[in-house]
Amino acid sequence: MSQLTANIASLPDRENVVFEIWQGPRQLAEVSREPGKPMEIEIYPATDGGIWSLELEPLVSLLNQAVANLTSTTP
Questions:
Q1: Mean pLDDT for back-to-back runs of 10 residues, the chain (75 residues)
Q2: CB proximity list for 39: less than 8 A, separation 6 or greater
Q3: Which of 3, 22, 44, 75 is 20 to 30 Å from 60 by CA-CA measure?
Q4: Cα(8)–Cα(17) distance, rounded to whole angstroms?
Q5: Contact call for residues 42 and 29 (beta carbons, < 8 A)
Q6: Which residues are bridge partners to 4 per DSSP?
Q7: CA 40 → CA 20, 32, 70, distances in Å?
Q8: Is 49 left (phi over 0), alpha (psi -120 to 50) or beta?
Q9: pTM for this entry
Q10: What is the tens place of the pLDDT at every residue in 30-48?
């Protein structure tokens, strides 16, 4: 199982930065906080048609980082 990683990204279709969560070369999710909306997570299907198998603690840690980062970088 590949380690989870994250990046902060500025995307052309978003007003604010997003927090991307990756497992190896595959993007698992994107956490965003757009104006007038609550913080949201988009979870993407596994590209191979299979299922995601993740260790819970690293995922929870990254989600907490997402909240902290997006709270401090958005108005």
A1: 91 95 95 95 91 94 96 71
A2: 31, 32, 33, 66, 67, 70, 71
A3: 75
A4: 6
A5: yes
A6: 23
A7: 12, 5, 11
A8: left
A9: 0.90
A10: 999 999 999 999 999 998 8
